[in-house]
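HOLO CASE FILE
Compound: adenosine-5'-triphosphate
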Amino acid sequence: MNALEVRGLVAGYGGITVLRDIELTVPQGALVALVGANGAGKSTLLKCVSGIIHPTRGEIRMGDRRIERSSASAIVRLGVAHVPERRQIFGDLSVADNLRLGAYSSRVGAPELSRRISEMTDLFPALRDRLADDASALSGGQQQILAIARGLMSRPRILMLDEPSLGLAPRVVREIFDVLTHLRSEGMSILLVEQNARDSLAIADHAYVLETGRIVMAGTGSSLLGSDDVVARYLGVGASQDDAERRDRVRRIAERLRDELVRDVTAKR
Ligand code: ATP
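Model generated. Tokens follow.
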């Protein structure tokens, strides 16, 4: 049984198509990586699965259930947890409150909430002494752990992560990826979206390469790591953190300009 299946998916924003004919499968209990450069459409795919945007064509299945027209809250209840890019932690809320928010759609009572929070502190001891602290007081790596723990609070069947390594030092990235391999060993199905191809292919059972909205390669993580094409395109030059941050800033500005353009065009229609 597959945890997630995407078939013939086409999606975009305001009449602009971003994803074309996407075919992707996350088998039950597998860690699947989706890698690709900035703007390839990786986040857009996660947004389709979690119901934030609806595709224009295609199917998304969890088991034998179609979800591509379901609401985001229904999809959380069906067992999809989406850990968004840049973590989106509520910095002025406590760590415990951030965790509670993760279980919001599950509509559970206080005793069950406490049980789930203590499960999270067992799994992530770094959070145990920080429950009462503002989340903004955590380090970047701890905030990423909190974002993952918040996702797990809904007891998902599949965990989707959008660039958990973003902005973190290599040592912290390794810790986060260790967390993911541990969760997989406990049976969790994981869809990991990353620009960091090298580290994510190294831990992935299966992987897909997305380029300007299309899947251009697929295989086991190790076969893609060994592919000359992947090495040349994605692993050749190890970009420094500064480069990554500069590219990120430029991308944000470009995206904002593009959003404004899309809004203008849509308004004039
Ligand atoms: P990144 O890792 O940089 O987030 P990505 O592979 O996740 O890249 P997406 O964020 O899915 O890429 O973006 C794919 C394309 O869709 C980009 O060209 C982006 O500018 C565009 N896009 C993303 N969000 C919107 C939006 N809300 N409105 C219009 N266009 C958008």
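CASE NOTES: The mean pLDDT is 89. DSSP finds ten helices and ten strands in the chain.
CLOSED: yes
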